[in-house]
Automatic annotation (TrEMBL):
The lineage of its organism: Bacteria, Pseudomonadati, Pseudomonadota, Alphaproteobacteria, Rhodobacterales. Residues 411-517 form the Alpha-glycerophosphate oxidase C-terminal domain. It comes from the Bacteria. The gene is glpD. SUPFAM superfamilies: FAD-linked reductases, C-terminal domain (SSF54373), FAD/NAD(P)-binding domain (SSF51905). The keyword Zinc-finger does not apply. PROSITE patterns: FAD_G3PDH_1, FAD_G3PDH_2. Residues 11-388 form the FAD dependent oxidoreductase domain. It is an enzyme of class 1 (oxidoreductase). GO terms for biological process: glycerol-3-phosphate catabolic process. Signal peptide: none annotated. This is Glycerol-3-phosphate dehydrogenase. Its EC number is 1.1.5.3. One of its GO terms (molecular function) is glycerol-3-phosphate dehydrogenase (quinone) activity. It comes from Celeribacter indicus.
Length: 531
């Protein structure tokens, strides 16, 4: 742990409280660097809470020969599973096959097959899918996750929701993750190691002053301003990385950003088993249909150009229709607009390298270091949630060329808070929790374990009844849990709690959310008055 020195100078000042910024903050603080992180909203309030929520290697990236990215992501799946078995767990993916499947025409694989096997006419043959899945099974060196198998769909739970024309499928492994909780837990660990985490704090300007950066910030709630000094500046602004670089940092740059919007719909639960579907379209695109929060199904994602980070991303009616039409090519019972209970959309900030399409643009991360004669600047572009930890390690390698780092890579074996139990140990935790707190229902206990792991008992404390957990806000959310989130996970508003620290916004009505917000506001004011 390193504190900011007596002069008030941080080693690192990080702009952005998404997964990249918080991952770098955690890694750096654990290596003895002093860190300040500023996020203009809540943690994970943009792209990092709007993902498809998968730790996956990216099966379709094999078609673009992104072997390094896929290899790294596949290896990371099991590293991350061991570090956070409460918020991430294995999932089996069912890929139905039919002869109409096609490549997107611009992929390297499609072009290669067009030259060597023109009679395929863009078809995605079964043998090629099986070859891709073989590579997917072997590139990452699996130890926990089971490999691919072929399924006959007739008369099976996996085939029951699908149209009869689908007779076989391939089943392979990837993993689910609660994306915004991942960000909050990284920030919490960084803070525990000495980092200053400043939420709702906007960087309005950063300029070099010799060997230091002078950073001016504004409190988004009070309007108050502050000035910070740091030896190195990290721009991990997500969708705003380009705007920050060109408009707020006093340093010329030619780096470009490609903003790609990914939208999702959440529907009523569409099938009874706990596996995900991987659907391939006749246009080469893919979508997932994923069991979500017990009673729902998550379907996504789209890929569309997004004009500017200042324009909030929304799942447009056209994108909703696209996802419904796509899913209805597979599901036996049509899914309609009436089945949609929620939509969300996020913007991926990809490094602009002139790719022909959004689908072809690399999801790999790009780190651009600018040093010259003054204080160094590290700009972070792109990345996948699966490789956030490796991105942080790569960032520290570059940072270590300019700052003294006293420790090497350490995060691979370090669990996040609440994750100190075996990968297959969640059920045992639920049983133990219900034994200690008999008032918990099965669903309530599972929700707590899947959010807080071994720390669920700390939230419940000595409560002998549900009433002893304080005010009940609905959907098993209690005062005890909200206090924990405010004290330990930087939550300040109801939206932080119901849409990012949890997904209970799917179960609470607007009046309940408003009541929660009033309660949290009163609690904050009482704490501020007591200080």
């Amino acid at each position: 742990m390193a504190e900011i020195d007596g002069t008030g100078i941080s080693d690192l000042f990080i702009i952005g409280g998404g997964i990249n910024g918080c991952g770098i903050a955690r890694d750096a603080a654990g290596r003895g660097l002093s860190v300040t992180l500023a996020e203009m909203g809540d943690l994970a309030s943009a792209t990092s809470s709007a993902s498809t929520k998968l730790f996956h290697g990216g099966l379709r990236y094999l078609e673009y020969f992104e072997l390094r990215l896929v290899h790294e992501a596949l290896k990371e799946r099991e590293v991350l599973l061991r570090a956070m078995p409460h918020i991430s767990w294995p999932m089996r993916f069912v890929l139905p096959y039919h002869e109409d499947m096609r490549f997107e025409s611009t992929t390297p694989t499609s072009r290669l097959l067009g030259l060597t096997m023109p009679w395929l006419r863009g078809q995605r043959p079964a043998w090629l899918i099986r070859l891709g899945l073989f590579l997917y099974d072997t590139l990452g060196g699996r130890k926990i996750l089971p490999g691919t198998q072929t399924l006959s769909l007739a008369g099976t739970p996996e085939g029951a929701p699908l149209q009869e024309r689908f007779e076989r499928a391939y089943e392979y492994s990837d993993c689910w993750v609660q994306d915004s909780r991942l960000v909050a837990l990284n920030a919490r660990d960084a803070a525990a190691r000495g980092a200053a985490i400043l939420t709702r704090t906007k960087v309005v300007r950063a300029a070099r002053e010799g060997a230091l950066w002078r950073i001016e910030t504004e409190d988004m709630e009070t309007g108050g301003t502050a000035t910070h000094s740091a030896r190195l500046l990290v721009n991990a602004g997500g969708p705003w990385v380009g705007e920050i670089l060109h408009d707020r940092i006093d340093l010329p740059s030619r780096e470009g950003v490609r903003l790609v919007r990914g939208s999702h719909i959440v529907t009523r639960r569409l099938y009874d088993h706990d596996k995900c579907y991987f659907f391939q379209g006749t246009d080469g695109r893919i979508i997932f249909a994923i069991p979500y929060e017990g009673d729902f199904t998550l379907i996504g994602t789209t890929e569309a150009d997004h004009p500017a980070p200042s324009q909030p991303p929304v799942c447009t009616p056209e994108e909703q229709r696209y996802l419904l039409d796509f899913a209805n090519r597979y599901f036996r019972t049509p899914v309609t607009e009436a089945d949609i209970v929620w939509t969300y959309s996020g913007v991926r900030p990809l490094h602009d390298e002139g790719a022909a399409s959004n689908t072809a643009a690399t999801r790999d991360y790009t780190l651009k270091f600018a040093a010259g004669d003054g204080a160094p600047l590290l700009n972070v572009f792109g990345g996948k949630i699966t490789t956030y930890r490796r991105l942080a390690e790569a960032a520290l390698e570059k940072i270590g060329t300019h700052l003294t780092v006293t420790r090497g890579p350490w995060t691979a074996g370090a669990p996040l808070a609440g994750g100190d139990f075996p990968v297959d140990g969640a059920a045992a935790l639920v049983t133990d929790l219900r034994g200690r707190f008999p008032f918990l229902t099965e669903a309530w206990a599972w929700r707590l374990v899947r959010s807080y792991g071994t720390e669920a008992v700390l939230i419940l404390g000595t409560a002998a009844t549900a009433g002893e957990l304080g005010e009940a806000f609905g959907a098993t959310l209690t005062e005890a849990e909200v206090r924990w989130l405010m004290r330990h996970e930087f939550a300040r508003r109801a939206e932080d709690v119901v849409w990012r620290r949890t997904k209970l916004g799917l179960r609470l009505d607007p009046a309940q959310v408003a009541a929660l917000d009033r309660w949290m506001t009163a609690e904050r004011r009482a704490e501020e008055a007591a200080e």
